[in-house]
Amino acid sequence: MDRTSELHYLISGNNQFGRVNLSRAAVGAAVKKAKELLQEGYLDVRISTPRGRILLSDEFDQLEE
Length: 65
Fold this sequence. Notes:
Mean pLDDT: 91
Order of helices and strands: EEHEE
Low-confidence stretches: none
Shape: globular
Number of helices: 1
Largest sheet: 4 strands, antiparallel
Helix content: 10-25%
Oligomer: single chain
Strand order of the largest sheet: 2-1-3-4
């Protein structure tokens, strides 16, 4: 599988300057980055799984390995 067809976890959040959208290949890295965004004051932080499930911050523990 080449890099362009890998499925990723998508992380997004809002702050006073706008919206950020990031991706991570591994679930642990996605949860870590989402928690970092929350600590930095981002709002509406979400993780979208490769299967299309959207998790809000109080659901991140459902993803942790």
